[in-house]
TrEMBL record:
InterPro entries: Cro/C1-type_HTH (IPR001387), Lambda_DNA-bd_dom_sf (IPR010982). Pfam families: HTH_31. Residues 86-141 form the HTH cro/C1-type domain. It comes from Streptomyces globisporus. This is HTH cro/C1-type domain-containing protein.
Amino acid sequence: MDFYGGPVHPTPPFNAPAARRLREALGMAPGHVAYGLAAQYGLRISAETVVAWERGIATPGERELTALAGVLWCAPGELLAAAATLREHRMTRDLTVDELARQLGMTGASYLRMEESGRWRGNEKQSGALCRALGLSAAQFMTATGRDEELAELLSSAVTTRWQAYVRPVAKVVPLDRALVQDVLEQLHTDYQALMVSTLSWSSTGQERSGSTGDAGRAFLARVVEQFWRTAGV
């Protein structure tokens, strides 16, 4: 595991039922898994701990997860639930910090700082390389790099005011072609205005959008982002 003096992270989202299914498919008992972890990877893990992992009582760390995947003849991603963060996506692809950083053209330390903070600072070329290396869709990229909230605020303003003013800001945030962003914003603005005039189904009083700290405001932001990705077709 790469380490640059950063904080300790929570373990990735472990898929406990998958671990048990994979073990049983190989005809192995928990004790066999424990033996393999020790013999192949030098990890002193008891059979009881293996059972605890499979029951969701305990969770393996990154090194343990990689070793467990080796013992069970599977990729680490098969032992993970749906990834959301950069670290989780990297783990799913079985990449170390240094391996991924090399593909992005940056140092391991620089990449790790962004992974730890949850805020992506890479340029356009590096963002494209990140999506390719981790197999990220545009929507997954936004979530993993901590830009969902920023996008939601931009889209909220775009559909309720002059959408043309937000083409460039949105295009800078999302990994989509600017022409597509323009078309999507125009469509969202048109749809929103039509709904406001007819059924008011997106914002019944206008307070749903402006009250962004309340449940109604958050629901509006979530809906406008969902509609953006649906309209973009990505």
